Amino acid sequence: MLRPGFMDEALAQARRAAARDETPVGAVIVKDGRVVAAAGNETRALNDPTAHAEMLAIRRACATLGDERLAGCDLYVTLEPCAMCAGAISFARIRRLYYGAADPKGGGVEHGGRFFAQPTCHHAPEVYPAIAESEAAQILRGFFAGKRR
């Protein structure tokens, strides 16, 4: 079930990432109506190309819950996950994915490889796109507009 407050927290994580000069993507993992993990991108800070918000949130949720599987958990993320993150979402057995802005160039859910639609995908979450889409897209546009000045 969609809870708008959780996407608000993901948007706050995206803004914090932008303030750190990271690509502004935020993610929150929820179980039983409570946030168990939250993160923003940290690829630059950690010198790690896998430190996407989704990956960090999944790692933190697994550590918090003491399990490699996140069955019964929902992920709220401000940008359509890339193929790497979609793979991690599948392997973690995330129940539902709510995302904000579509990513025609780098997305892996409804664009690109469409990871969850592949016959080799072992688990596909329920996917709900375009949640707070305009706000998520505006955060990204504002960040990259500032880079082009």
How would you describe this protein?
This protein has 149 residues and is α/β, with parallel strands linked by helices. The protein is 39% helix and 19% strand. The chain has 5 helices and 5 strands, in the order αββααβαββα. A 5-stranded mixed beta sheet has the order 2-1-3-4-5. Helix 4 (83-92) links the parallel strand 3 and strand 4 (96-101). Helix 1 runs parallel beside helix 5 (133-147). The mean pLDDT is 96.
Write a compact overview of the structure shown.
The protein has 149 residues and is of the alpha/beta class. 39% of the residues lie in helices and 19% in strands.
Main beta-sheet strand count, sense and barrel state? 5 strands, mixed
Helical residue percent band: 25-40%
Structural class estimated from helices and strands: alpha/beta
Low confidence ranges: none
Q: Write down the secondary-structure element order.
A: HEEHHEHEEH
Mean pLDDT: 96
Tell me the number of strands: 5
- Biggest sheet: strand arrangement: 2-1-3-4-5
Spatial separation of the terminal alpha carbons:
41 Å
| Count of discrete alpha- or pi-helical segments spanning 4 or more residues | 5
Q: Mind telling me the C-alpha Rg?
A: 14 Å
Shape: globular
Strand content: 15-25%
Question: What would the keywords be for this entry?
Answer:
single chain, 5 strands
